[in-house]
Write a structure and sequence with these properties.
Elements: H1 2-17, E1 31-44, E2 49-59, E3 63-77, E4 83-94, E5 99-109, H2 110-113, E6 118-128, E7 135-142, E8 148-155
Antiparallel strand pairs: 1-2, 1-8, 2-3, 3-4, 4-5, 5-6, 6-7, 7-8
């Protein structure tokens, strides 16, 4: 299941690079705007794997919450192999224990990482407690100073 989600998000990231908008999740409920912003510590475990740890911030529908994710660098591409695909899975957790689980992907280039935000797409594929069955999608951004933001839609069932 996770592999299929990462493929779907990777396709969305490729579409975003081509200038099209990410798909809006469809569910029985009403789509509402979803925004979140987190800052914290990025732990590089190897040249290809790392974790977002101890990130805190706020999100619509969750309020004050934490962000965790495990990511992998994918194929290098472009001149000098300085560009890469990053894909991962993670969750947003409110103090109440309500969570949103997501997958994300984006393309980045090492030369621009320190000077410009890297943007890709995310796909919310599940939630727990009051957001059980939630779905959503949108733009995922990492700023040069490490701020992670989500901007898109959320459908809670």
């Amino acid at each position: 299941m996770i592999a299929r989600l990462l493929i779907a998000v990777a396709v969305m990231a490729g579409a975003a690079a081509g200038g099209t908008k990410p798909a809006i999740a469809k569910a029985d409920g009403k789509a509402v705007p979803f925004h979140a912003s987190y800052s914290g510590y990025l732990d590089t475990q190897s040249a290809a794997t790392f974790q977002y740890k101890n990130f805190s911030g706020t999100a619509t529908v969750l309020g004050k919450s934490t962000f965790t994710a495990t990511a992998k660098y994918g194929e290098r591409f472009g001149q000098g192999s300085g560009c890469f695909l990053e894909a991962g899975v993670g969750k947003l957790t409110a103090k109440s224990g309500t969570t949103l689980r997501f997958a994300y992907a984006f393309r980045g280039c090492e030369a621009s990482v320190s000077t410009a935000p890297i943007a890709g797409n995310y796909l919310i594929y599940d939630g727990k407690k009051k957001l059980a069955g939630a779905q959503g999608s949108g733009k995922y951004t990492v700023s040069p100073n490490g701020i992670v933001t989500f901007n898109g839609t959320l459908v809670a069932r």
